[in-house]
């Protein structure tokens, strides 16, 4: 008998989510096979990379991460434009780090103003990410949802504690949400169920499994994403068939290995390449685990990862 | 299915307090209530009992045996406390059972001789030198080791209760499959080493972490499965009436449908009432056909 290459039997598909303004829609998801298993199914929409923009000048960044943006770090709208014009960003992720009550504690009004400016400066879809403080995120993201009706923003993180308020806002003002759970497949499914019960349409839900950087427990995140795709694609688990967003750059670049200078850590190699490679490697692993949107920072890392995507997609 | 009541536990606030004050009344009342609820054994759980464990176990065995004749499971990791309990124990309706002996050389060497010395039973807990077994094969290796040692020491098969370790479905569902796999192999393993050996498990572990009101159906469904896989006993909440009914074979329809799911059948949900649907959904979650979430019954 002739040898037959074993193939995985799929019976589910990831939902297709349209993102961004009506004039400039992009779609993510739609996979009918494991990541890049193009010999078994389709990936109609290659994974997208969103470039990070911060709502206030970063204070503790590695020099390598700061260098490409020194001319724009004080102006989120200009920063976003540079990402699109100079580096071909497919999406922008506005990190509202300064709203954190433990940091600058900027107000919801300021966050709305920044979001509007950034949204007006670009045509690509805009992700708006809170500071991961339940009360502050609820207040800030709700206001942004209301004031930016029609932008179809992607709002995150939406957690179990905030899902009612933010889910309702997403329905009322037509935005997409990133449903966020702490590296736990069962909790991820539960939150998707709760959002569905609330009435959030499926095409407005993305999953944020919570990710971390290479060397800091990445394998746990990888396993959860892998399990997510197994349930979604081979077990018809309808409440897990959502595109996955990986907010990885902030965790990659905050670790000491990404920040140490040449003098402080001569054995760790060139500090510029080091952070870029940490970020690119982390991103590649999450692509292989099933990421649909990668939130990234450094243009060189992004270029590397785009190369990987093109190679793996055979384009 | 033999039922062992888990309620006399130092972790239960009122019981822990009574143990501390050496106040027999609440403990004896609970023991009598467990017996009246119909359990076959009563588990006395002292936890680690590092300080004064010997005296406490001796006292507990004495006062519980003043009011009930049921055999007892003596549950603590303190080896000396176990011996003190065995010394005080009187065999009225069966042997006392040491709960438990881990598959670690030093634990087995220290405790198996107690089992023969006092003519007791023993729970062979499949917890090895490296901790929790990773799969069915490791469970098999640990079981072989402890059954062999027990047999060599002269413990009869019927006095050994193998505990394969039940894990929570919401965090370690795949371990339940390994546990099931091992249970289906246990008789074969025991046939040579310890014919007639029994088995037991902390059933409520399966629902640990699930919402309180949903724990019973997880416990019940998993007990139905384990019964089919040859499990002889479960350590359970003595006051779960439904669980008793199932253990006594009084819910044959629901039990049969869970067994069908275990055999790989896909029962037609349309033809089932809501209760039976719940059991099917729960069985599928336990078997990993669908991923656990707190809302699994609503899907």
Account of the 3D structure:
The complex is a heterodimer of chains A (about 325) and B (about 300). Chain A is an alpha/beta fold. Chain A is built from 11 helices and 10 strands. Chain A has helices at about 65, 75-85, 110-120, 135-145, 165-175, 185-200, 220-235, 250-255, 255-260, 270-290, 300-315, and strands at about 15-20, 25-30, 50-55, 90-95, 125-130, 155-160, 175-180, 205-210, 245, 295. The two termini of chain A are about 35 Å apart. Chain B has one domain (about 1-240): TIM Barrel (Alpha-Beta Barrel), CATH 3.20.20.20. In chain B, helix 7 (about 170-195) links the parallel strand 6 and strand 7. The longest helix of chain B has 25 residues, at about 170-195. The interface between A and B is medium-sized, with 14 and 11 residues.
The secondary structure category of chain B is alpha/beta
Kindly report how far apart the N and C termini of chain A lie.
Answer: 35 Å
CATH architecture of chain B: Alpha-Beta Barrel
Percentage of residues in strands of chain B: 5-15%
Under the CATH scheme, which class of chain B? Answer: Alpha Beta
Based on the structure given, which CATH architecture of chain A is correct? Alpha-Beta Barrel
| Record field, number of beta strands of chain A | 10
SSE succession of chain B: EHHEHEHEHEHEHEHEHHH
Oligomerization category of the chains in this entry: heterodimer
Largest sheet of chain A: 8 strands, parallel
Q: Fill in the CATH topology of chain A.
A: TIM Barrel
Question: What would you call the shape of chain B?
Answer: globular
Largest interface: A-B, 14 and 11 residues
Quickly name the level 1 CATH class of chain A: Alpha Beta
Number of E-type strands of chain B: 8
Overall domain count of chain A: 1
* Measured distance between first and last alpha carbons of chain B: 31 Å
Mean pLDDT reading of chain B = 96
Runs of chain A with pLDDT <50, length 5+? none
- Adjacency order of strands in the biggest sheet of chain A: 8-7-6-5-4-3-10-9
In order across it, which strands form the biggest sheet of chain B? 7-6-5-4-3-2-1-8
């Amino acid at each position: 008998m002739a040898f037959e290459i074993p193939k995985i039997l799929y019976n589910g598909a990831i939902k297709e989510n349209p993102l961004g303004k009506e004039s400039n829609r992009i779609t993510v998801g739609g996979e009918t096979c494991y990541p890049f298993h193009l010999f078994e199914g389709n990936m109609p929409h290659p994974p997208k990379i969103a470039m990070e923009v911060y709502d206030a000048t970063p204070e503790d960044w590695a020099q390598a991460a700061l260098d490409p943006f020194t001319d724009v770090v004080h102006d989120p709208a200009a920063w976003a434009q540079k990402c699109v014009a100079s580096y071909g960003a497919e999406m922008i992720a506005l990190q509202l780090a300064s709203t954190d009550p433990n940091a600058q504690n900027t107000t919801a009004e300021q966050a709305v103003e920044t979001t509007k400016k950034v949204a007006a400066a670009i045509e690509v879809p805009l992700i708006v990410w809170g500071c991961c403080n339940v009360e502050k995120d609820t207040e800030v993201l709700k206001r942004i949802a209301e004031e930016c009706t029609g932008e179809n923003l992607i709002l995150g993180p939406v957690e179990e504690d905030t899902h009612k308020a933010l889910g309702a806002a997403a329905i009322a003002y037509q935005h997409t949400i990133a449903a966020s759970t702490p590296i736990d497949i069962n909790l991820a499914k539960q939150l998707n169920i709760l959002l569905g019960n609330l009435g959030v349409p499926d095409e407005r839900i993305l999953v944020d499994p919570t990710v971390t950087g290479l060397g800091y427990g990445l394998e746990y995140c990888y396993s959860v994403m892998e399990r997510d795709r197994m349930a979604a694609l081979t077990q018809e688990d309808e409440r897990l068939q959502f595109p996955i967003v990986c907010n990885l750059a902030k965790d990659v670049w905050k670790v000491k290995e990404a920040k140490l200078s040449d003098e402080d850590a001569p054995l760790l190699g060139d500090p510029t390449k080091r952070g870029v490679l940490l970020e690119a490697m982390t991103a590649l692993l999450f692509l292989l685990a099933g990421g649909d949107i990668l939130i990234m920072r450094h243009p060189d890392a992004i270029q590397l990862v785009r190369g990987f995507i093109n190679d793996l997609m055979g384009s | 299915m033999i039922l062992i009541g888990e309620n006399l536990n130092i972790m239960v606030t009122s019981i822990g307090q009574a143990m501390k004050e050496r106040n027999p009344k609440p403990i004896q009342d609970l023991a009598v209530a467990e017996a009246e609820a119909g359990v076959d054994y009563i588990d006395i759980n002292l936890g680690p009992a590092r300080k004064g464990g010997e005296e406490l176990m001796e006292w507990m065995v004495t006062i519980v045996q003043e009011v009930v004749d049921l055999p007892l499971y003596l549950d603590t990791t303190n080896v000396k406390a176990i011996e003190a309990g065995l010394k005080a124990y009187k065999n009225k309706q069966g042997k006392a059972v040491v709960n438990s002996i881990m598959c670690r050389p030093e634990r087995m060497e220290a405790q198996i001789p107690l089992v023969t010395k006092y003519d007791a039973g023993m729970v062979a807990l499949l917890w090895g030198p490296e901790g929790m077994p990773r799969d069915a094969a490791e469970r098999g290796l640990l079981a072989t080791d402890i059954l062999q040692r027990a047999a060599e020491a002269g413990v009869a098969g019927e006095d050994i209760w193998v505990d394969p370790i039940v894990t929570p479905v919401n965090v370690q569902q795949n371990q339940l499959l390994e546990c099931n796999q091992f249970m289906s192999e246990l008789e074969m393993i025991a046939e040579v080493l310890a014919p007639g050996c029994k088995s037991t498990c902390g059933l409520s572990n399966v629902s640990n972490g699930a919402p309180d009101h949903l724990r019973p159906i997880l416990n019940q469904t998993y007990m139905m499965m384990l019964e089919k896989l040859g499990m002889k006993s479960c350590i359970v909440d003595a006051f779960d009436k439904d669980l008793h009914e199932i253990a006594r074979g009084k819910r044959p329809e629901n039990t049969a449908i869970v067994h069908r799911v275990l055999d790989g059948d896909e029962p037609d949900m349309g033809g089932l009432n809501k209760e039976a649907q719940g059991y099917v959904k729960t069985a599928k979650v336990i078997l990993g056909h669908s991923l656990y979430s707190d809302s699994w019954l609503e899907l």
